[in-house]
Amino acid sequence: MNRAAYRPEIVLKPVDIAPWRDGNRGVPYVHTFESGRPGPHLMVNALTHGNEVCGAHTLRFLLEEGVRPLRGTLTLSFANVGAYESFDPEYPFVSRFLDEDFNRLWNEATLDGPRQSRELARARAMRPVFDACDHLLDIHSTELPQAPMLLAGTRRKNIELARTLGFPAHVVVDGGHKAGKRVRDYARFDDPDQPNLALLVECGQHFEAAARDVAIQTTLRFLQAFDAVDAAFLRKHLSADPLPRQIVVEVTQLVTVVNGPFRFVEDYRGFDIVKRKGTVIGYDGEAPVATPYDDCVLVMPARAPAQGNTAVRLGRLL
What we know:
Blueprint: E1 30-34, E2 41-46, H1 54-64, E3 73-78, H2 81-85, H3 108-112, H4 118-132, E4 135-142, E5 149-151, H5 156-165, E6 170-173, E7 197-205, H6 209-225, H7 231-237, E8 247-256, E9 262-264, E10 272-274, E11 280-284, E12 287-290, E13 296-299, E14 310-317
Parallel strand pairs: 2-3, 2-4, 4-7, 5-6, 6-8
Antiparallel strand pairs: 1-3, 5-7, 8-14, 9-11, 10-13, 11-12, 13-14
């Protein structure tokens, strides 16, 4: 497969989210529902990237079904709506963002700094929403066909939540990106001394029909983990298939593009295991990139990584 020229079939298409434009808490496209009973504040966030449409389908499903928390609070949010609205099926990867990646902005220096962009404006508007929630599920999908996975960060508390969900089968323990901090690593979510939990789910290729199913099933299991919604609703919509055996991969290093262009030597699809230390897996410009140890797992090899971005994560099976 020519990765850079890859053009997916658009099976899972964007859906109309305009009915939820106004929100109900003063932030467009953000809806918060309170039960009036003690319990955690859960947040399910979609469209961190504008072309990751499975999250929009998932929130539409929950909103149309009228899901409400039985205890605590539930927030459902569509994040980078501007990028989502710019989607063009002829250029399906361009609408990931408008000016810059919304999911690389989540540190205090950036959020409080003077720099301006459309993504930063939206992040600053949504910041109080993330600050108010206790536990977060952030819904994503991948450029290339890859196995669904939970990205748990490095904190034990989030790895334990991933194991509680039991789905999808792959769990990645990773420290994020050098290009900037993700929503799931923001503030209390990455603080080992705070109880707040966060997971990022990658649901498979952006436009595969299966990505919607993975997103919905993961979201239902997230809500189930906190006894947040009606058990009868969960029984109706949760898959009866046995849960897979989870595989946990600890990322030990990121391959960041320094020189560029970057090219892989094989058509890696994610969770490939390279048996021998020192095996060349790609070239950053003319510089070879080799595996640092035996049985090295390649996590989320990028479609066309640009300079300064992550080409692939390297990890070990735990």
